[in-house]
Automatic annotation (TrEMBL):
It comes from Blattabacterium cuenoti STAT. Keywords: Isomerase, Metal-binding. This is Chloromuconate cycloisomerase. GO terms for molecular function: metal ion binding; racemase and epimerase activity. It holds the Pfam family MR_MLE_C. SMART domains: MR_MLE. It comes from the Bacteria. Residues 139-233 form the Mandelate racemase/muconate lactonizing enzyme C-terminal domain. InterPro entries: Enolase-like_C_sf (IPR036849), Enolase-like_N (IPR029017), Enolase_C-like (IPR029065), Mandelate_racemase_C (IPR013342). PANTHER family: O-SUCCINYLBENZOATE SYNTHASE, O-SUCCINYLBENZOATE SYNTHASE-RELATED.
Amino acid sequence: MNCFLKKQIFFFKKKIFNSNRIFQKNIIWFIILTQKNKIGIGECNPILDQFALKNLKKFELELKNISKKILFLKKIEISFYYKHISYSSILFGLEQAFLSLKNKFPILYHSEFTSGRKGISINSLIWLNSFKKEKKYAIEKIEDQIIKGFSLIKMKINIKFIDDQYLILKKIKKKYPFIKIRLDANGCFKKTKKVFYYLNKFYDLGIIDLIEQPILSGNWKDMEKICKKSKLPIGLDEELVNIYELKKKKKLLDIISPQYIILKPSINGGFFGSEEWILEANKRKIKWYISSSLESNIGINAIAQWTFIMQKKYNNFNTHGLNTGELYPKNWISPLEIKKGIIWYNPFIKWKIETLLK
């Protein structure tokens, strides 16, 4: 077995931003394993992991050390490497590499999804960029997603634009009463009083599915109060980051008791850690859905295959967030296709990843 690393810079088509960050480029590492005629690829994408971003040299050094361990141990069971991994996105990359080596890349899990017979329902995503211009521009952006067949649209919100965003959604509701909107606040509200004011305002629209992370993570008491009193369902996103101990996961869900959790394998402890969240959420009748974290098509391919397995295993057919690969003009050509709000795997389309393997 051979193992090597490849680093690639992905530039976004244009700058995108949420309530607390501007995204211009993304540096992604790939773990590539070869064994006889088989290949395994794992994507390590630290863009949403503040712990990793503070010291990317240390992140890369850990990846190099893991590669040496793989060459020495020659094992493809993830349990042999847990103690050497301190970053969630490296664990996730390693899980992908081992699974795709075992089942031959690009397949991690054989299913009706990878055979092209079934797809996964996904939401569209409107970034804050769309609200920098006049309202008409933002309305056109949302309408464009509706025309493409999306019935659920996720929209980034921010205190600076929020009143305009409310008015925009009021117009959308009037024209498209069937549409559902997910609001992603990324912790933009500083005071709970203001949170409730806007929660009530958006609730009255009658088209809001839920609101993600209204306040900054770490404020468990305030978040518990919001989840308890809000008329709108609340989803936890950043709140779950860097919580890997099962005991702490249980404690967080018991104290805050949200209506939803949003899972991103690259920052929630890979497939293993994310499934732990699912099991604990199910015990408490908390809903969940899965989202990508600005991965390339290789990472989204892995998440989509796993998502299909999870929703079938736990009978949860929520709408997921797996379409961010479109943000990169130079992405890998892959069989992933989005049609009418559903992501499909077309087995007749070949992957084009030759540059990655050189």
